[in-house]
Design brief:
This protein is of the alpha+beta class. The protein has helices at residues 79-83, 115-118, 138-144, 150-156, 261-281, and strands at residues 34-38, 41-44, 50-54, 62-67, 74-77, 87-88, 96-101, 109-114, 120-126, 129-130, 160-166, 172-175, 190-191, 197-204, 207-217, 224-240, 243-248, 251-258. The chain is built from 5 helices and 18 strands. Strand 17 (243-248) and strand 18 form a beta hairpin.
């Protein structure tokens, strides 16, 4: 579900969120290049989103914004955006917002995103699939030839939480990512969907852009080098305090908010280590 990003038509709408199924992937060089900092926030070239803080006077018909580039507060008409359900999140005084303005009337905002509400950890549930028999190691093929009790099947077909954390200064982190340190993962009779290794997030004209790649870890894990950089993009369809919906090219995925990404990562790592231990025992 990949789509090349081209100039102003770049984000016609992530393939898989991820985000395996909710965002579309594009290779490095196909997206606008970064253009330095604006109030310490790294933006993307060509991004016309207006950023600022919500001020007193915001309502269902008006957003009063203190722009990031300084100056006096500016009022924007959001009546149509409200009717069209293009208010993503609930703006409160002091919240960091992103507005996409109407092309014909710069006093009208067609889309409002509460970026403070968008930040945080978002997860969804994935289920493993039985590994394709023709791709199984001989040892595993022999085991699979035997009848598998239902109790065992339930023990290996466990759901897992995937997701991502959107942090300050446009940094991002994958949630539920497990680094495979050995070939023991090939001994497992099930395989989970791939999860991208996210490092950054941005907004580009109202679209969510996630940067991911293939991590190369140093021997002591103190340094990580990223290769095969991708930019995943998607529409923000719905955003409330505990719910997020992202969509791209007709594929939609819902997320729920998690309070602590470390808890999810810890559980995913423990389950992976348990499967590796069982593989060694057999």
């Amino acid at each position: 579900m990949n789509r090349s990003i081209k100039k102003l038509s770049i984000f016609a709408t992530v393939g898989v969120i991820i985000m395996t199924a909710a965002c579309g992937s594009n290779h490095e060089g196909d997206v606008p290049q970064k253009r330095g900092h604006s109030n310490k926030e790294l933006l993307l070239e060509g991004d016309k989103t207006v950023y600022g803080l919500a001020c007193e006077g915001c309502s269902d018909s008006t957003i009063v914004l203190l722009p990031n580039d300084g100056g006096d507060p500016v009022s924007y008409d959001i009546i149509d955006a409200f009717r069209n359900r293009k208010i993503m999140g609930r703006p409160h005084i002091g919240d960091w917002l992103g507005l996409v303005l109407n092309e014909e009337d710069s006093t009208v905002a067609d889309l409002v995103i509460n970026l403070d509400e968008l930040k945080g950890t978002w997860c969804y549930i994935v289920m493993p699939k039985m590994r394709s028999f023709d791709k199984m190691p001989p040892k595993l093929q022999k085991r699979m030839m035997q009848d598998m009790p239902d109790s065992i099947r339930r023990s290996i077909l466990k759901p897992r939480e995937y997701g991502f954390s959107l942090k300050r200064q446009w940094t991002a982190q994958s949630v539920g990512y497990v680094r495979q340190r050995s070939s023991l993962a090939d001994e497992s009779p099930v395989v989970y969907p791939p999860l991208s290794y996210f490092t950054e997030w941005h907004i580009w004209n109202g679209k969510l852009v996630m940067t991911s790649g293939k991590p190369q870890f140093s021997n002591d894990d103190a340094r990580i080098t990223m290769t095969d950089i991708h930019y995943d993009t998607c529409d923000i369809v719905y955003l409330r305090k505990d719910s997020l919906v992202l969509s791209s090219e007709g594929a939609t995925r819902g997320y729920y908010r998690k309070a602590n990404a470390q808890d999810v990562n810890k559980q995913a790592k423990e389950e992976a280590e348990e499967r590796a231990k069982k593989a060694m025992e057999k």
